[in-house]
User: What shape does this take?
Amino acid sequence: MSSLIIYSEENFAPLAEAFCGEFESDCNLSAEIVTVDEQEIRRLNKELRGIDSVTDVLSFPSLDGIFGKKILKKDFPADLDEEGNLFIGSIAICVKRAEEQAEEYGHSFKRELNYLAAHGICHLLGYDHIEEGDKSVMREKEEKVLLKIGITR
Assistant: This one.
């Protein structure tokens, strides 16, 4: 079974492990998660999405067309990281927004931070939430991986 490796200053190892078995690949996948302040997330959002506002999480997938498919190393030879893992993309999480949302939703900061990371990873794996049907599939995956590490609402 392939693994997900998360490069981050935060400890997302349990979440990475929870994603094992949630995708099909012939190699290990890797992703980067950085935590940023409000100014940085706003800058990224404006520069990359044309939206001049603070948001909670941004995802930057490296691979296209992978949703629901077996991810094959040979199909993405230019996307291997230094360790030989297939790099699926980067995620930026705004810590201040995560703190505010944890309070707003009445759960822990740990839950919110891991939820935002899971949400971002789902985007890197090709999930989306524009259409209602896609949104429910994505939410189900997010909750499934969080439950695997004992993080519930």
